[in-house]
Amino acid sequence: MSLMSNYAREDITFVKGDGAKILDSKGKNYIDFGSGIGVCSLGHANKKIAKTISEQSRSLLHTSNIYTIKSQITLSKSIDKLLGYKTYAFFCNSGAEANECAIKLARKYGTINFKEKKFEILTLKNSFHGRTMATLAATGQDKFHPEIFAPYTPGFKFFDTIDEIIKNIDDKTVAVMIELVQGEGGIKPLPKDDIVKLSKVLKKRNLLLITDEVQCGVFRTGEFVTSQIYGIKPDIITFAKGLGGGVPIGACVSTKDIFTPGDHGSTFGGNFLVTSVANTVLSEILKLKESGKLNKNIKTFNRYLDKMVERYSEIFESKTGLGLMLGLKVKDAKYQDLVYRKCLEKGVLVLKSGKDIVRFLPPLNIKKDEIKDGFKRFKDALNEI
Ligand SMILES: Cc1ncc(COP(=O)(O)O)c(C=O)c1O
């Protein structure tokens, strides 16, 4: 193999997709309940996205951030409209980069606003914030800190619960960074009361709340951002995955405009291609939301999963998650890989999360018959376990 061995790749090559359907090089078809880990929010080969890419590529793909890019401004205004408050946006290429921007912003905020510099960021032990050195350091899960990559970026502390985070805020703390629904840590929505309390404590002390909505944002949980479901207004929100519907884009938006030229940047970040596609993605998902179809899909998908827990109670313990960011908790960790593999065999793509969760991140616009077909295959898989 000519590629680095950093992924445990399946021996499957996909060649074509259409909505939630996807075909491999051997001619086998699958229903995609994973959307490329929450990226293809409008499914595969979406016509509106294809049209945007085609049209944009015939005028401009890239000029660099030396110049003004109108589609970035449009995107940032749409984000504000959807959030309901004013933010300043930085566009980049991935979730980790969006979080890097958030970390740098927080450190600058901690430098310019206090007599003694504040720089520490508190996160949860079960968190995942990315694979760069700083975002790995922000990630609380021990398995992401092997000695081979040490030393890690200093300035991060992890705690088991939000309550512990609150108790451990000290003179060095500048921000708390959290995923409202932990994605890689097992599709775990955080308790609402704790989050509301945390948000109030931070506001009172002029410290920052950063919500990492890389996986749970952009209508994945039913609203534009999960923060809206929790009734909070974070100072910084990060996005990626579903925002581009398949093109690589990340965004860090903040209520504070404190960077000055040279503080941060990206060559590709927010170029014409990705921001024009993200504009299309947002307007299409908004239509889906306003027509009631998104909520319908959420209800239908959840109903199927509830049935799976009921019917296959020897395999599954419970359902977890919010909106279309969902998981089934297996009773014994050995079932996680077994279910995943049987599903591949039967032609339905599911994901794994944590040690015991079978994860579902279907396209937000998945069709009723695709859901039905996918769960038929899912049942076929479970019947053989
Ligand atoms: C919550 C969260 N933050 C950050 C990241 C990192 O995103 P990326 O892989 O685009 O760098 C992920 C990726 O899974 C994520 O789920």
The gist of it:
The mean pLDDT is 98. The protein has a seven-stranded mixed β-sheet with strand order 4-12-11-10-7-5-6.
Structure description:
The protein has 2 domains: 14-32 and 292-383, Aspartate Aminotransferase, domain 1 (Alpha-Beta Complex); 49-289, Type I PLP-dependent aspartate aminotransferase-like (Major domain) (Aspartate Aminotransferase, domain 2), CATH 3.40.640.10. It has 12 helices and 17 strands. The strands form 4 sheets. It has a 7-stranded mixed sheet. It is globular and about 65 Å long. It has helices at 35-38, 47-57, 70-83, 95-112, 133-138, 162-167, 192-204, 226-230, 272-290, 293-311, 334-346, 368-383, and strands at residues 14-18, 21-24, 29-32, 88-92, 120-124, 156-159, 173-178, 181-182, 188-189, 208-212, 236-239, 250-254, 316-322, 325-330, 348-349, 351-353, 357-360. A hairpin with a 3-residue loop joins strand 16 (351-353) and strand 17. Helices cover 37% and strands 19% of the residues. Helix 11 (334-346) packs across helix 12. It is α/β, with parallel strands linked by helices and 385 residues long. Keywords: Amino-acid biosynthesis, Aminotransferase, Pyridoxal phosphate, Transferase. One of its GO terms (molecular function) is transaminase activity. This is Acetylornithine/succinylornithine family transaminase. Its cofactor is pyridoxal 5'-phosphate. Belongs to the class-III pyridoxal-phosphate-dependent aminotransferase family.
List keywords for this structure.
binds pyridoxal-5'-phosphate, 2 domains, Aspartate Aminotransferase, domain 1, Aspartate Aminotransferase, domain 2, alpha/beta, 385 residues, Aminotrans_3, 4-stranded mixed sheet, 7-stranded mixed sheet, identical protein binding, 17 strands, 19% strand, Acetylornithine/succinylornithine family transaminase
